[in-house]
Amino acid sequence: MAGSCFPAFRLGKPRSKRRLRMPPMSSREHQLNSEENMEGKRFDSLESWSMILESENVETWEASPKEDEDEWTADLSQLFIGNKFASGAHSRIYRGIYKQRAVAVKMVRIPSHKEETRSVLEQQFKSEVALLSRLYHPNIVQFIAACKKPPVYCIITEYMSQGTLRMYLNKKEPYSLSTETVLRLALDISRGMEYLHSQGVIHRDLKSNNLLLNDEMRVKVADFGTSCLETQCQETKGNKGTYRWMAPEMVKEKTYTRKVDVYSFGIVLWELITALLPFQGMTPVQAAFAVAEKKERPPLPASCQPALAHLIKCCWAANPSKRPDFSDIVCALENYDECMKEGLPLTSHARLVSRNLILERLKGCVSVSSSSSPSTSSSSIPVHA
């Protein structure tokens, strides 16, 4: 099965190339450039993966002792790597087969000569594996295995054949998605995020590029490299995520909560309705400045359903406490979906008022009641609460 789908690795020596004359440089610069060029070529060469994953080739890349192996450690003898279909600054994603199952293999190259970058990438790998390995939900991409073979780490997940939500939207005409399609996709995302928050995890980089589609066009939340447990998120320095989808409090590097994900969902919902890139025409930094300092948001089209426009505005509210929880968002979207099926107009959902805001009001009422006499305490909460 694997042999028919993927080309065999070739371990032959690379052909020699003619050297070009370059301006003179210091020995240190020459060494760094040589290392970067060598790592770049090896990183993009399919044959280099076989050399890394075959433990007998290089002594320092041999597997860890059995007692040190984690339960998620991949059996590399069962892994076949195919063609690359996505790439990032330090990672490449390949199609593959693992134990006769189609998978996506994310390879992360850890640079040896950049200590700060190495530390960040290693921490992201540990965080992503630790979180993914404990998450089980139909709308969360399924983790299968991982491996550490310095200088390369890999994460194996289920293969999502239709790519990212952003790729899907790029193929669509602006404003062309039906309300039914928008609701179906939005429900998948919000259910995945509701589960994620129920596990105490903040994603911190929710965007259309990190949402994947399978053969049935169902959406799954992916890429947990910058995610964290809510109790530990404030320990990390600097802002995380991507500026176009980033909540204003995170842009300003203020204290934040899980509501940063709700803000990002509001931007994603806007993407579903428009099929456009948020803050098109702006650089990412300009978009961040517009959101944080000018309180700007992407323009809502006049054709947008009023109920969906209301939901989006609630999600990207400047005050995090006014943003709804994902449980309320799921409830609202399910209500809208039922209305569509029954041919009824969509109506704004009453539960979209944030529970935090309700609790704040109730606290005020309780403080009033505590100052009143005991005989009237049972009926002292005002009706407007």
UniProtKB/TrEMBL annotation:
Name of this chain's protein: non-specific serine/threonine protein kinase
UniProt keyword annotations, A-Z: ATP-binding, Kinase, Nucleotide-binding, Phosphoprotein, Serine/threonine-protein kinase, Transferase
Sequence ranges of Basic and acidic residues compositional bias: 27-40
Gene3D superfamilies listed in its UniProt record: Phosphorylase Kinase, domain 1, Transferase(Phosphotransferase) domain 1
Reactions this protein catalyses: L-threonyl-[protein] + ATP = O-phospho-L-threonyl-[protein] + ADP + H(+); L-seryl-[protein] + ATP = O-phospho-L-seryl-[protein] + ADP + H(+)
Organism per entry: Linum trigynum
Residue numbers spanned by region Disordered: 1-40
Coiled-coil positions: none
Domain spans labelled Protein kinase: 79-352
CDD domains, A to Z: STKc_MAP3K-like (cd13999)
Keyword set includes Nucleotide-binding: yes
GO MF annotation: an example: ATP binding
InterPro entries associated with the record: Kinase-like_dom_sf, Prot_kinase_dom, Ser-Thr/Tyr_kinase_cat_dom, Ser/Thr_kinase_AS, Ser/Thr_Kinases-Pseudokinases
Origin: domain of life: Eukaryota
Basic residues composition-biased segments: 12-21
PANTHER family referenced in this protein's UniProt entry, alphabetically: SERINE/THREONINE-PROTEIN KINASE TNNI3K-RELATED (PTHR44329), SERINE_THREONINE-PROTEIN KINASE HT1-LIKE (PTHR44329:SF277)
Family note: Belongs to the protein kinase superfamily. TKL Ser/Thr protein kinase family. RAF subfamily.
SUPFAM superfamilies referenced in this protein's UniProt entry, alphabetically: Protein kinase-like (PK-like)
Record-listed E.C. numbers: 2.7.11.1
